[in-house]
C-alpha cells in the first residue's frame, strides 16, 4: 500500500520536475519564459500523436522533445533577437500552445493511446519497497532524475555552467568579457523547451495515455512556481516536485479514508505548502538573493 | 508566424457569416460551449447533438458554435454576438451562462434562448433544459451492488452541487437495494476536468479497497486506471468503451440530439414556446451504453431496472429513505419532489463521507 502510494507520488512529480528543471536552466541564464504550459501541451499532443501513428511510444517521446524545443525557438527568436517583452511573449506562447495543440489533436480525441513501457532493472527491481519505486519505472522517470543530477553538475561543476550563470547574473559584464550572451540564452531556452516537451509526453504517454484538450491543466504554471520555490537550486526543485506530488496524492488518500477535513481545503494544500515555503525562504532576504539570477527577465541588446 | 495566421484563420472560420432567415423552412441554431468540443465529455456530447441536428435537417439548418467560452463577462459578449449575427435559436450549454443568457434575451426578444441546467427564465423567450442523469446512476448502483466483491465502490466527484450530490445518492440507493451494507468512498477532485488528477483519485480509491469505480468528472482517465488495475468501472457523459473494452460496465450518455432537433423544428414551425424541461430515460435524453463485462443475470437485472424507470413504474428516490444522520427523508412509498432534488444538499444514510458545504 505504502509502496503503491509512493509510485503514484513519483508519477505526479515527474512531469513537474522535468518542466521545472528545464525552466530553472532558462531562468539561470536570465530569461523568464512563462510559456512552459504551452510547450508542455505541445509536447503532450506531439508525443501522443506520433506514438499513435507509429505505434512506437519512444519515438513519440523523442518527437515531443523536438517539438518542445522548436516551439521554444519561437520564443527565443522573439525575445532574444527581436527583444520583445519576455512576460508578454511567454504568455502568448502559452495561449498559442493551448490553441494549436487543440487543433492538431482534434482527430486524436477519444482514441486510446500507447503507453510507454516500464523498464525493469534486473535484480534491483526485486528489492523490497524501493525496488519498484526506483528500478521498475518508465524511461521518462529515469531521465528526469538523471537530468536533475546532470543539471547540478553542469551548473555548479563546469566552466560552461559558470558562464551560463554569469550571463544570468549580469549580461552586460558577460558581454564585455566576450561571452556570447544571446547564443547562450538561445541554447538555454531550447533546453527548457525540450524538457517541457518531454514533461508533456510523460502526461500523454505515461500518466494518462490519451489525448484531451488542455490536459496539462495548469501543471506548467506549477512548474514555474516550483523554480521560485526552489530558489533556483536544482536539488530543491527535485524535493519541491516530490513534496508537491506527495501532498496532492496524500489529500486524495485522506479523502478516500474518510478523514473529515473539507475537501476544498485538502485540494488547496499543495498550493498552501508552496506559499508557506516561499514565506519561510524569503525571510532571509540575502540568502534568497544569492541564488536569484540578477538579470532575470531583463532585455539584452548588445552594443548599446 | 505562419502557424499563428493559420490558428487565427481557423478560429475565425468557426463563425460562419450569418444569413438571415425569414422563412419558416430554414433556421440558424447557435451553440455556446464551456469546454473544448474535444473534451470527450460534456461539451463533446453537446456538439454531437448539434451534428445530429445538422444531419437531420440537412440544408435547412445552419449552425455555428463557440467553444471554451468562459462563464462570466465573456459569455455575455459571445451570446450577444450570436444574437446579432442572425441566430434564430441560441443554446447556452453551461450552468454559469444563466445570468448572461437572460440579460441578452431581454435585449433580443425575437431570438429564442435555451439554457442548459439553469433555473432562471426571466423573459418569455428563455427556456431551460436538463436531464435526469441520476436515473442512470441508480442503475449503475444496482450493477455495482452485484459486481463488487468487497462491497466497496469508489466515487470520483467534482463539486458539491445538487446535481452531483443527487448522483451520489442515487448510486448509493441503487447499491443498497442489492447489498444493504454497501460502502461508498467519495473523493472530491474539485475539478470537472483534470485527467491526471482524476487518474490519481481513481488510484487512491483502488488502493483504499474500492473494487469498482464510478465518476462524475469528465475525462476518460479513471477508466484507463481501472483497466490497468483490472477492476470494472462506469463511464461518464459519453461511451468510453474504447478506453476500457474489458472494464466499462456501462456509461451514462448525454444525448442532446433529440431535444435540439425538437426545439429547432419548433422554431421552424413557429410553435416555439417557453419550457422547463427535465427529462431522463423515458424521453431518450439519458441513454445507457450497452451493458458489458457482466454476467447475464446482472445484465438482465440492470435492463429490468432501466425499463421500470423508463416506464415510470419506479422512481429512484422512493421511500423509505433516511438522511445520513438517520432522520427520515422519505416515508414508505413517498417520492421525492423535483424541487427538493434540484436543491439537494445532504447525503442518504450509509454514505461514509462528509459532504463539503
Keywords:
heterodimer; A: about 300 residues; mainly alpha; ABC transporter involved in vitamin B12 uptake, BtuC; two-stranded antiparallel sheet; 13 helices; 2 strands; about 70% helix; B: about 350 residues; alpha/beta; Rossmann fold; 2 domains; 6-stranded parallel beta sheet; 3-stranded parallel beta sheet; 11 helices; disordered N terminus
Describe the structure in brief:
Chain A is an all-alpha fold and 304 residues long. Chain A has 13 helices and 2 strands, in the order H-H-H-H-E-H-E-H-H-H-H-H-H-H-H.
Description:
The complex is a heterodimer of chains A (304) and B (357). The longest helix of chain A is centred in the first third of the chain and has 27 residues, at 2-28. Chain A is mostly helical and 304 residues long. Chain A has a two-stranded antiparallel ribbon. Chain A is built from 13 helices and two strands. In chain A, α1 crosses α10 (219-229) and α11 (234-256) runs antiparallel to α12. Chain A has a single domain (2-112, 138-291), classed as ABC transporter involved in vitamin B12 uptake, BtuC. Chain A is globular, with a radius of gyration of 19 Å. Chain B is α/β, with parallel strands linked by helices and 357 residues long. Chain B has two domains: 27-131, Rossmann fold (3-Layer(aba) Sandwich); 133-254 and 285-341, 3-Layer(aba) Sandwich (Rossmann fold). Chain B has eleven helices and 14 strands. Chain B has helices spanning 2-13, 42-57, 73-84, 98-107, 133-147, 162-176, 195-207, 221-229, 257-269, 296-310, 338-341, and strands spanning 27-32, 61-66, 89-92, 112-116, 126-131, 152-157, 183-188, 213-215, 233-237, 248-254, 276-279, 286-288, 321-322, 328-330. Chain B has a six-stranded parallel β-sheet with strand order 2-1-3-4-5-11, with helices on both faces. A three-stranded parallel β-sheet of chain B has the order 7-6-8, sandwiched between helices. In chain B, a hairpin with a 5-residue loop joins β13 (321-322) and β14. The longest helix of chain B has 16 residues, at 42-57. Chain B starts with a helix and ends in a 16-residue tail after the last helix. The model of chain B is unreliable at 1-23 (pLDDT under 50). Classes of the chains: A mainly alpha (304), B alpha/beta (357). Chains A and B meet through α1, α4, α11 and α12 of A and α1, β7 and α7 of B.
Amino acid at each position: 500500500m505504502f509502496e503503491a502510494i509512493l509510485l503514484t507520488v513519483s508519477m505526479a512529480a515527474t512531469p513537474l520536475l522535468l518542466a521545472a528543471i528545464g525552466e530553472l536552466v532558462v531562468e539561470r541564464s536570465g530569461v523568464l519564459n512563462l510559456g512552459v504550459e504551452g510547450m508542455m501541451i505541445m509536447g503532450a499532443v506531439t508525443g501522443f500523436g506520433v506514438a499513435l501513428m507509429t505505434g512506437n511510444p519512444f519515438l513519440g517521446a523523442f518527437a515531443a522533445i523536438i517539438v518542445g524545443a522548436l516551439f521554444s525557438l519561437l520564443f527565443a527568436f522573439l525575445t532574444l533577437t527581436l527583444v520583445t517583452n519576455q512576460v508578454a511573449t511567454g504568455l502568448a506562447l502559452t495561449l498559442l500552445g493551448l490553441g494549436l495543440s487543440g487543433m492538431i489533436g482534434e482527430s486524436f480525441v477519444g482514441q486510446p493511446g500507447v503507453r510507454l513501457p516500464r523498464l525493469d532493472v534486473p535484480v534491483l527491481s526485486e528489492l523490497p519497497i524501493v525496488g519498484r519505486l526506483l528500478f521498475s519505472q518508465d524511461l521518462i522517470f529515469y531521465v528526469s532524475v538523471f537530468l536533475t543530477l546532470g543539471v547540478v553538475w553542469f551548473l555548479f561543476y563546469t566552466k560552461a555552467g559558470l558562464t551560463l550563470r554569469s550571463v544570468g547574473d549580469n549580461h552586460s559584464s558577460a558581454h564585455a568579457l566576450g561571452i556570447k550572451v544571446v547564443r547562450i540564452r538561445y541554447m538555454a531556452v531550447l533546453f527548457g523547451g525540450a524538457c517541457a516537451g518531454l514533461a508533456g509526453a510523460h502526461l500523454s504517454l505515461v500518466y494518462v495515455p490519451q489525448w484531451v484538450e488542455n490536459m496539462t491543466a495548469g501543471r506548467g504554471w506549477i512548474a514555474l512556481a516550483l523554480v521560485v520555490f526552489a530558489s533556483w537550486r536544482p536539488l530543491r526543485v527535485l524535493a519541491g516536485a516530490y513534496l508537491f506530488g506527495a501532498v496532492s496524492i496524500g489529500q486524495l488518500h485522506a479523502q478516500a479514508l474518510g478523514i473529515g477535513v473539507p475537501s476544498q481545503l485538502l485540494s488547496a494544500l499543495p498550493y498552501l505548502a508552496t506559499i508557506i515555503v516561499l514565506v519561510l525562504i524569503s525571510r532571509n532576504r540575502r540568502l534568497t538573493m544569492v541564488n536569484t539570477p540578477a538579470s532575470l527577465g531583463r532585455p539584452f541588446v548588445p552594443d548599446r | 508566424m505562419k502557424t499563428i495566421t493559420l490558428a487565427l484563420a481557423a478560429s475565425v472560420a468557426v463563425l460562419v457569416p450569418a444569413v438571415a432567415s425569414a422563412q419558416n423552412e430554414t433556421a440558424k441554431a447557435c451553440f455556446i460551449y464551456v469546454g473544448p468540443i474535444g473534451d470527450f465529455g460534456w461539451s463533446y456530447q453537446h456538439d454531437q447533438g448539434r451534428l445530429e441536428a445538422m444531419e437531420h435537417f440537412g440544408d435547412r439548418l445552419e449552425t455555428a458554435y463557440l467553444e471554451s467560452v468562459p462563464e462570466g463577462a465573456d459569455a455575455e459578449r459571445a451570446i450577444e454576438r450570436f444574437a446579432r449575427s442572425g441566430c434564430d435559436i441560441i443554446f447556452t450549454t453551461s450552468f454559469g451562462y444563466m445570468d448572461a443568457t437572460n440579460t441578452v434575451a431581454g435585449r433580443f426578444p425575437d431570438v429564442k434562448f435555451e439554457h442548459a441546467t439553469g433555473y432562471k427564465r426571466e423573459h418569455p423567450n428563455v427556456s431551460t433544459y436538463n436531464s435526469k442523469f441520476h436515473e442512470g446512476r441508480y442503475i449503475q448502483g444496482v450493477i455495482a451492488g452485484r459486481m463488487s466483491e468487497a462491497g466497496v465502490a469508489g466515487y470520483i466527484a467534482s463539486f458539491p452541487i445538487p446535481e452531483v450530490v443527487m448522483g451520489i445518492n442515487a448510486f448509493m440507493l441503487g447499491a443498497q437495494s442489492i447489498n444493504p451494507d454497501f460502502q461508498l468512498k467519495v473523493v472530491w477532485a474539485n475539478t470537472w476536468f483534470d485527467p491526471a488528477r482524476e487518474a490519481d483519485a481513481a488510484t487512491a480509491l483502488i488502493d483504499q479497497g474500492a473494487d469498482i469505480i464510478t465518476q462524475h468528472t469528465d475525462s476518460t482517465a479513471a477508466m484507463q486506471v481501472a483497466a490497468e488495475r483490472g477492476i470494472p468501472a462506469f463511464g461518464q457523459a459519453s461511451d468510453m468503451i474504447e478506453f476500457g473494452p474489458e472494464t466499462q460496465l456501462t456509461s451514462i450518455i448525454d444525448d442532446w440530439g433529440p431535444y435540439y432537433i425538437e426545439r429547432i423544428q419548433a422554431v421552424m414551425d413557429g410553435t416555439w414556446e417557453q419550457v422547463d424541461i427535465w427529462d431522463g430515460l423515458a424521453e431518450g435524453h439519458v441513454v445507457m451504453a450497452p451493458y458489458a463485462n457482466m454476467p447475464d443475470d446482472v445484465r438482465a437485472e440492470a435492463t429490468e431496472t432501466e425499463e421500470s424507470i423508463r416506464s415510470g413504474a419506479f422512481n429512484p428516490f422512493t421511500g423509505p429513505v433516511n438522511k445520513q444522520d438517520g432522520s427520515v427523508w422519505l416515508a414508505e412509498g413517498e417520492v421525492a419532489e423535483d424541487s427538493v432534488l434540484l436543491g439537494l444538499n445532504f447525503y442518504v444514510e450509509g454514505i461514509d463521507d462528509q459532504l463539503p458545504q
